[in-house]
Amino acid sequence: MVRSLISLVLIIALLGANYSRYFIYAGFELNDKYIAAALCENIDKPMLNCKGKCYLAKKIKEAEEKEESREKQLRKSHFQDAMAVQEVAVNYPSIHIQLISFDLPFDLPQRSGSIFHPPQTV
After folding, report:
1. Cα(68)–Cα(70) distance, rounded to whole angstroms?
2. Mean pLDDT lowest for which of 16-25, 38-47, 111-120?
3. Is the full-model pTM beyond 0.90?
4. Of 30, 39, 67, 115, which shows the fewest CB atoms inside 10 Å?
5. What confidence score (pLDDT) does residue 6 get?
């Protein structure tokens, strides 16, 4: 019972974060008359026939800006400066470095100037 409740809460939280724009649309559709009467910015301009769509556009823009700022913060938190503050000199003792030279018992293919063409089928 507890696991199913926790999983349901997590699913709703994930959907709420990803589909916030749709929740704004649903809230507008449920409260369209109230928004048109009380919250509409163009209520004094009836020729625009806005009916609260200005309020809806403003809320959607706010949600998009909030999402963009959240993404920027997420990118900033993952950004790391890769700047060397001090020079680091690495010195290997010569006893550890050993040059190895050997001859191969076969010849490596030489690069030819021609381009490989697949066989022609007749």
Report:
1. 5
2. 111-120
3. no
4. 115
5. 92
Task: Encode burial over 18-36: b for 16+ CB neighbours within 10 A, e otherwise.
Answer: eebeeeeeeebeeeeeebb
Instruction: Tell me the DSSP string of the chain.
Output: -HHHHHHHHHHHHHHHHHSHHHHHHHHHHHTHHHIIIII-TTTT-GGG--TTHHHHHHHHHHHHHHHHHHHHHHHHHH------SS-------TTT--------SSPPPPPPSSPP-PPPP-
pLDDT recorded at residue 96: 61
d(CA 70, CA 72): 5
